[in-house]
């Protein structure tokens, strides 16, 4: 399964809407992969925003690259 390697327009995605705003619920995704997630733009519960600290930690953990390995994206 190929990992997306884009490094631009990175956003922090909530893995689970009810999973809170901690690092364990954060996934670094580029804009294209973010839009491709099943919950993107779907109305419903808005998860709490990530703090700048968690965003930085998530980007560091991901090596400043998109973390997406979803096959549906076709990277
Ligand atoms: Zn991506
Ligand atoms: Zn993707």
What would you note in describing this structure?
- The chain has a two-stranded antiparallel sheet.
- It starts with 9 loop residues before the first strand and ends in a 14-residue tail after the last helix.
- The longest helix has 10 residues, at 52-61.
- The chain has one domain.
- 21% of the residues lie in helices and 13% in strands.
- It is of the alpha+beta class and 75 residues long.
- The chain has helices at 31-36, 52-61; strands at residues 10-14, 26-30.
- It is built from 2 helices and 2 strands; from the N terminus they run ββαα.
- The relative contact order is 0.33.
- The protein binds zinc ion (ZN) (2 copies).
What tags apply to this protein structure?
75 residues; alpha+beta; two-stranded antiparallel sheet; 13% strand; globular; binds zinc ion
């Amino acid at each position: 399964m190929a990992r997306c390697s884009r490094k631009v327009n990175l956003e922090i995605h909530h893995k689970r809407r009810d999973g809170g705003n901690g690092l364990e619920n954060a996934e670094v995704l580029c804009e294209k992969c973010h839009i491709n997630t099943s919950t993107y733009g779907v109305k419903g519960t808005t998860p709490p925003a990530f703090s700048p600290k968690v965003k930085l930690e998530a980007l560091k953990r991901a090596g400043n690259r998109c973390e997406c390995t979803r096959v549906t994206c076709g990277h």
